Amino acid sequence: MNIEKLTENNRSIPRNKKILELFHKAGEIENWGTGFYRIKEACLLNGNPSPEFEERAGAFVLTLRPLNFETTQETTQETTQEIQKRILCLLAEEPQLTRKKMAIKLGKITEDGVKYHLRKLVSSGKIVRVGSTKSGFWRVIEQ
Description:
This protein has two domains: 3-63, no CATH class; 78-140, Orthogonal Bundle (Arc Repressor Mutant, subunit A), CATH 1.10.10.10. It has 143 residues and is of the alpha+beta class. A two-stranded antiparallel sheet has the order 1-2. 50% of the residues lie in helices and 13% in strands. The longest helix has 25 residues, at 69-93. Strand 3 (127-130) and strand 4 form a beta hairpin. The chain has six helices and four strands, in the order αααββαααββ.
C-alpha cells in the first residue's frame, strides 16, 4: 500500500481476521480499510486543512492541523512583536531593569521568557548590553 492509496475509499486485507472480527463485534471499529479516507473526509467537512500523510522509517505518519493553524501562527507573531515593543519601552525608561522586574512589569511572562525576547532583540540589533551583567544596563538602539 502506498500513501496515495491511503485516502481512497478502499478495503484493506486484514492480517488477522479473528482479531478484526473481535474488535468489530466489540464495537471498537465500525469498518476496516477506510480509516484514512474517513479522517480526510472529516477534516474537509469540518473545514480543517487536509491531513498530511507521509512515510517515515517504514511507518505511516498522519499530521492533523487545527482549524485555525494559520491564525494561531499570526497571533503568536503579533504577541511576540507586542512583548518586544513593551520590553523596548521599559528599557528606554529604565535601562538598568532586571529580567525579574521586567517579567513582573510585563505580567504573564516568566524570567526565561524575558531572556528569550532579550536575546531576540539583541540579535536583531535593537538593543545592546553595556557593562557587566550585574552593574550594566541596556541601551535601546532602535525602537
